[in-house]
Amino acid sequence: MLSYSKLGFGLMRLPKDENGVIDQTQVQTMVDLFMHNGFTYFDTAYAYAGSENAIREALVKRYPRDTFTLADKLPAWKIKEPEDVERVFRESMEAAGVDYFDFYLLHSVEEKHLPTYEKYNAFDFLKEMKAKGKIRHIGFSYHDGPELLEQILTRHPELEFVQLQLNYLDWENEVIQAKRNYEVTRRFGKPIVVMEPIKGGTLAVLPPEAEAIRKQTIPHTTPSSLALRFLAEKEGVMTILSGMSNGEQMKENTATMRNTSPLTETESKAVAAITRSILSADTIPCTKCRYCVAGCPMHIAIPDLFTAYNSQRLYGEHARYQTYYNKFASSGNPASACVACGQCEGVCPQHLSIVSLLKTVSEAFDH
């Protein structure tokens, strides 16, 4: 099995200043803290706006190349012509400032993206780049069901690892099918890189009822450490990516993963109770990846509006949630502005019915 640091720094949710620009100073501080604690795996993507440039400045220019591991991804939705595959790869290398990637992935492989990767020979391209030394290890991130996953791993034995969305809230989820995807990947003997272990922050700040369960049964834990440790004990898990956005998150997660231990029986029972509690609230399972935002013709801040809705569902109606909603809807982009073009649903890795959900959110907030 491939062996790399158990905690990975996911670069999807880097800190930003008040103007929405990546805070390079804070990113550098976080990179230094991460490296100082002995962790070396960094995960970026062509689709993470500004991320490749940010990690070039904070990491690549400041540390010897053999002291860190860098992963990047090729997005199907940016490929329209045969030459786009090589162009995107080259642009990623230039943006990140490297002459090879330790890990390179086909981004978000699923039923709607697989035909693009096959049409433009992306699998062969990865093998070619590996043969040339431009990629050390090839794999893919995955957002679909276990049946398709088995087909892909059968057809492409050359793929060395799989990046899966795993967390305790999704473990038995019939849409995400985290447990079944995990089991398929293990059956093929492929190492697993975990994404969304804290489900976009959902498991970092628990709603009141779930938090009460944690405090009553396992007060010695923190919500984030519980989520990470649930996965750290799983066989075949190579690296757990956490999309950390500030130094406090970095400190907590590195402390957890430096001396991680399996969940006790009491902790496992608490996780089950917390899961039941959260799922009973009927919230929108958005992970705030923001893939839906870039192509929205109405420039609706979909994840932020969903956050306002979920907060109201979890914590009860309060003026602060309307204020939060208004902050992102005030520029003329409320949920009601949706024109139902469906672009957002085409790129959502959670397979959410976003058009319909925006109508629900609009009914709650657009008075």
Q: How many distinct helices? A: 16
Overall geometry: globular
Strand order of the largest sheet: 1-2-3-4-5-6-7-8
Question: How many runs of DSSP E, i.e. beta strands?
Answer: 8
Task: Show the helix and strand layout.
Elements: E1 7-10, H1 24-36, E2 41-43, H2 51-60, E3 69-75, H3 84-96, E4 101-109, H4 114-119, H5 122-131, E5 135-142, H6 146-155, E6 161-165, H7 178-187, E7 192-195, H8 208-217, H9 223-232, E8 237-242, H10 247-258, H11 265-279, H12 291-294, H13 302-315, H14 319-329, H15 343-347, H16 354-365
Helix pairs in contact: 1-2, 1-10, 6-7, 8-11, 9-10, 13-14, 13-16
Question: What does it look like?
Answer:
It is a single chain. The chain contains 16 helices and 8 strands. By secondary structure, it is of the alpha/beta class. Strand 5, helix 6 (146-155) and strand 6 (161-165) form a beta-alpha-beta unit. The chain is globular. The mean pLDDT is 94.
